[in-house]
Amino acid sequence: MTAAPEPRDGDPTVAVISDGRDPAGVGRPWVPAGRPATPRRLRAKSNAADRVFRGGARASGFTVLVIMLAVGLFLSLRAAEALKAVGFRFVTTQEWQPDTHRFGIAAVLTGTVLIASVAVCFSVPLSTGTALFISEIAPRWMKRALVTLVDLMAAVPSVVYGLWGLFFLQGQVVGLARWLSTWFGWIPIFAVDGADPTNPLATASVYTASTFIAGITVSLMVAPIQCSVMREAFSQAPPGEREGAYALGATRWGMVSAVVLPFGKGGIIGGTMLGLGRALGETIAVYLIISPVFQIQPHILQNGANSVSALIALRYGDASGFGMSALMAAGLALFILTLIVNFTASSIVARSRSGAQSEV
Amino acid sequence: MTIEPQAIEPQGIDSQASDSPASDSPASDSRASDSRASDSRGSDSRAIDPQGSEPPAVVQPGGNGSAAVAGAVPAAESTTLPVRPLAGAPTRRDLRVFRRDDWLNLCGALASGVSVALLLFGRIAPLSGVLGLIVVAYLAFLAAYALLVRLGGDGPQVRDRIWTVVLYSAAGTLMSGLFLVVGFTVVRGASALHHPNFFTQDLSDAGPLDPLTVGGIEHALVGTLEMITIALVITVPLGLTCAVYLTQVGGFGSRFVRTVVEAMTALPSIVAGLFIYATWILILHFELSGLAAALALSVMMLPIIIRAADVVLRLVPGNLREAAEALGAPRWRTVWHVVLPTARSGLATSVILGTARGIGETSPVLLTAGYTTFMNTDPLHGPQVSLPLATFELVKSPQPTMIARGFATAAFLMSLVVVLFVLARAVGGRAPGQPSSRQVVRNAQRSARDVIRFSRRPAPIALTASRVNSHSADDTSGETREF
């Protein structure tokens, strides 16, 4: 309960205000004479129930803090053991044989980043377009339905996307992958070793279980998150500026490109990076689709890929004590990467004009 | 950007109107000042308002002395509207975004795009594949559409139409992706889904070659429900009180807690599972169980729920809280009676969406729950399995019946998520401070009770100096009565 403090003697506020009328008596607003009135000090006297409430809330905040810090500290401590053993080679080694002290994240981290990049390349045009469509073009009834569907899409479990990628997408994309590698194979990332475009009977298996397919699957998972962040930013574009553009004779696209897109730039970048953070940490869909290889595989269309989370899911069962610590180190590396990406994203969104009031 | 030629027209009228007083300004002193005023107004309106909706006040050019007197009276009486030139009365512009020829353009372009693609794939070029056909047809359609729009419009119009079509197709692609994923799962799982034993049996009797009439996923359903219940029992009280701490109590450390929670939303779910596996199972030597999986899910869900609840609680209008405090309510009463009821629908939504995330998560469960085909209702002992984990293990098997069961499990899991989602929409979706109809009724009942309670109390006594003193003494004793 907040109780007003009782007036005390010598309190300047009370002393000055005691006579409310102005001395001249001409009705001018009263101006404090002498020392300026300082704001009153408000002291709330809390009773027992309030103290219990505050204490309880603090305790739960503290518990959460302890749990979260325990996760972080435990990860770092266990990871330190493995990192001490191999030192800097942890970043440059491609193999994963912890028991012979030959392990590193060069291959898996590259694979993770490649899969996430493919995912973002596919998801950003889709999500930007959908967000613009929802905020600028769609009629009201369609807008509500689309927002619900996009949110629902974000809630579909990742294992379902994994199934779809494995059983449906793989068969459809092989043709595209073959076409890309045949005509654009001179670009290094589209090259496929062991492919023979001149042989019509060649097996399609070199194109399966690749970074490309995993990336497309993950792109469908991250697109809804990106879309909702971008839609939020676009819908806040000031109506005055929109109408200004229309009044100057702009077409709708002219208005969008001159007002909405510059306004929502922070939302686009922030949403993209938030999706990237999700894509980096995705496990099950990637694990279902790829066939793991422990070497840097820059050919995204070719069979074989890897990611940090798939590595953990693959190797946790048969890991020795030291192997577990090595997996912890890999998990920590992934965590730090997603942490950097997420914090960059939220600071970009918060600093942009559209994100000043919004929450990511 | 296009500027229609009609838009320039009013400017001509405007300049004509403001010219006329300037021409006879030397007539008299008062007229001169008047004309200066109207002239400047005229040029102003020309500068900022090219449409010239309100012509400036103009003194009749043919006026005599009486007009000079009229210059002093309010301008409204001496205003005359300029006569519009009637030559070629302006037709109303059609402001609709989509006209009939646009429809025709669209249909024509669509037809030509499809024909070009079919021609290329069927006759001319050695191309094949459904995906390629769609892509080629789309590109041909875009080119044809640009050409058709260009025939009737200029560059900006072409760009507008093309981008509109592109945005439509982006939304269409994303939505068709969603429907493909959902539809494919349901279709592949339909063969297992329509056997009732799928929901009433576990998989222990189903051998690799047994038909779909044997075995089901009841054990996974029970496992999922138990795990998510334990996880919710841990996360909901902890998460909500932590969010209350962050927004309502604050003070030293709350910022740090918020930063750490925000950082932990980036924790990949498999790392949460790995943490529980390494501590709970390898160091503390507990067995793989539903409880361990629930703990891993809690570590993953806690930051999500806290963050969402934090956002919702921060949206509670400050004046509601201030009103409660001004009435003398202690902080916990403010939170319990004002803040939490106001934000209730949002809080429910955040919990339900966190549940939906937790229910569908596979990787923490994969590491900590083990896998079994038997029914295990005890979450503390023995391996348990959840729906996503069962899906994952079933589709790894080579038998088509097992794969069909996996798809059916995924479809069932998805329907569970959809139910949760619909629930979240029904409960939430209202901004804080907008009560549901039942809340309105309840509030009305409560205030009716309050009226009765107040009327039973003794009538307030006029405040005298002694009463004021006793009151303030009362207040500082730290007691609040009815709030």
TrEMBL record, chain A:
GO terms for biological process: phosphate ion transport. Keywords: Cell membrane, Membrane, Phosphate transport, Transmembrane, Transmembrane helix, Transport. It is found in: Cell membrane. GO terms for cellular component: plasma membrane. It holds the Pfam family BPD_transp_1. Residues 1-11 have a biased composition (Basic and acidic residues). Gene3D superfamilies: MetI-like. The keyword Membrane applies. The keyword Membrane applies. It is a multi-pass membrane protein. The chain crosses the membrane at residues 61-83, 103-134, 146-167, 204-225, 284-301, 321-343. NCBIfam families: phosphate_pstC. This is Phosphate transport system permease protein.
From TrEMBL, chain B:
Gene3D superfamilies: MetI-like (1.10.3720.10). Keywords: Cell membrane, Membrane, Phosphate transport, Transmembrane, Transmembrane helix, Transport. It is a multi-pass membrane protein. One of its GO terms (cellular component) is plasma membrane. It is found in: Cell membrane. Residues 31-47, 472-483 have a biased composition (Basic and acidic residues). CDD domains: TM_PBP2. It holds the Pfam family BPD_transp_1. The chain crosses the membrane at residues 103-124, 130-153, 165-187, 227-247, 259-282, 288-306, 406-428. Part of the binding-protein-dependent transport system for phosphate; probably responsible for the translocation of the substrate across the membrane. Residues 14-30 have a biased composition (Low complexity). Residues 1-71, 463-483 are annotated as: Disordered. This is Phosphate transport system permease protein PstA. GO terms for molecular function: phosphate transmembrane transporter activity. Belongs to the binding-protein-dependent transport system permease family. CysTW subfamily. PANTHER family: PHOSPHATE TRANSPORT SYSTEM PERMEASE PROTEIN PSTA. The gene is pstA_2. Its main location: membrane. The keyword RNA-binding does not apply. Residues 221-424 form the ABC transmembrane type-1 domain. One of its GO terms (biological process) is phosphate ion transmembrane transport.
